[in-house]
Amino acid sequence: MTNSVFTIGNALSIEADPGIMIAAVWSTHYAGSAAYWLYTYQRKTFYPFIPRGSDDRDHPAELNLAKLLSRQGMVVERSTEHWYPLWDIPF
Hints:
The protein has one domain (2-79). The chain has two helices and three strands; from the N terminus they run αβββα. 14% of the residues are buried. The two termini are 20 Å apart. Helices cover 30% and strands 23% of the residues. It is globular and about 40 Å long. It is of the alpha+beta class and 91 residues long.
């Protein structure tokens, strides 16, 4: 998945301003909640986002999901300071 995202991001940046591409987002479910995987083009890493309500997030679940997928070889952003929330994702 990482290679596909990177390839698509590079192709799009040839046609558009690379500064306008912030992240790619995938919708999924984790522990019965809506969850999202975000890939940041600038840092070339993934991180989870699990909203809980309109302005809160389930950080413990995000840490668990990150650990789980990191064990499977996913390149997860280590610094949670860079785990920016994307509120009101239209999925």
